[in-house]
Specification:
alpha/beta, Mannitol-specific EII, Chain A, CBS-domain, 2 domains, six-stranded mixed sheet, three-stranded mixed sheet, 11 helices
């Protein structure tokens, strides 16, 4: 069976992709150094394109207790949306019920809300707030939300999103999909009688999310590796890039074939301009024994990384937003493997 939420997630990607790419100059996911706040928790976004990430924190810190209601009184979808909107408004100064409910209706006209088995994730865009907000309600008996799979909805997570936080919404949604898409987690969360108990159940469930510890190892080099050895690794492995690590195995950069080609072509062009007979192959052979750290060919950005304990759905979000074909897998800063977008997709769709 596909990992719960994969279809929902891809629908959400389509929903926010335009905002993510059109709002940020240079197609950056988040502006360098942008500070955002989520439910009263200060967060700082990554500093370069494709490095959108929430800090490692308890997912419960994204929701204030006053924004949780265990046991909604609603008996229909519309009543439930009204009720969860009121929960949001009561905990969000400056936001009115009419404004938020109208924004939610406008969003639904564009298509159905994101849903995963037993959970719904309505969201509304509003400039009446500066902070990204989350409210959560449970309906143990289940409500008919006209879900594609026909499953009654028992958890409703409402997002109020200023347009500038489109990408933050997407990654947060991925976390919730990872959690609530697993039936055991959903059961524990729905059983909670009080907000504090529910948030504790969320944290406990988050610890059980599978990561990418299965990621295969990857050949790496150091700054002292000769250029000829790097080329041999690339050729024998039929790879376009190799990671560069320090003496402790920490990832410090990447060597790409395109960069090495520029080394040869650029140097050859300089020699020809000065009257020499340089050629790219001759230039590369001349540097064959040189440590790559002395050639100025190591890139320290432009590649993607994930942590080995990150859930697959979150990794899918990162790779999609960054337009990346793969990522290096880290344990802290240490390189432990690599994954491709194709492998992530295969795993999400049920492959092993």
């Amino acid at each position: 069976m596909p990992e719960a939420g994969v279809v929902t997630l891809f629908g959400a990607l389509r929903d926010v992709r335009a905002d993510v790419y059109l709002e940020q100059p240079g197609n950056m996911i988040l502006r360098c150094g942008l500070r955002v706040r989520t439910a009263g928790i200060a967060l700082k976004a990554g500093g370069r394109a494709g490095k959108m990430s929430l800090p490692s924190m308890k997912i419960s810190s994204l929701i204030e207790q006053r924004m949780v209601k265990c046991g909604l009184s609603a008996t229909t979808k519309e009543e439930a949306l009204d009720e969860i909107v009121r929960v949001m408004v009561e905990g969000t100064p400056g936001l009115s019920f009419r404004e938020l409910r109208s924004a939610l209706s406008d969003r639904e006209k564009l298509g159905p809300f994101s849903m995963v088995k037993g959970s719904a994730f309505p969201h509304a865009r509003t400039e009446k707030i500066s902070d990204f907000r989350v409210a959560l309600g449970t309906a143990p008996g289940g409500l008919d939300f006209k879900a594609p799979d026909g499953t009654p909805v028992r958890v409703i997570v409402l997002f109020a999103v200023p347009k500038k936080h489109s990408s933050l919404y997407l990654q947060t949604l991925a976390r919730f999909i990872s959690l609530f898409g697993r039936e055991h987690n959903l059961e524990e969360i729905v059983r909670a009688k009080e907000p504090k108990e529910l948030l504790a159940a969320i944290d406990a469930a988050a610890l059980r999310l599978p990561g990418v510890s299965w990621a295969p190892p990857v050949s790496s080099v150091t700054r002292d590796t000769p250029l000829s050895e790097v080329i041999d690794i690339m050729s024998s492995g039929n790879v376009e890039a190799v990671p560069v690590v320090d003496a402790e195995g920490n990832l410090v950069g990447e060597l790409a074939t395109s960069t090495l080609l520029r080394l040869g072509v650029g140097s050859a062009g300089v020699e020809k301009a000065s009257g020499g007979m340089g050629a790219p192959d001759g230039v590369i052979r001349a540097h064959a024994s040189c440590p790559v750290g002395e050639l100025g060919v190591i890139s320290t950005n432009g590649y993607s990384t994930v942590q080995e304990d990150e859930p697959l759905v979150e990794i899918a979000v990162k790779l999609s937003c960054a337009g990346a074909r793969g990522a290096y897998v880290l344990r802290g800063r240490k390189l432990v493997g690599a994954i491709t977008a194709g492998e992530v997709l295969r795993r999400l769709s049920g492959g092993q």
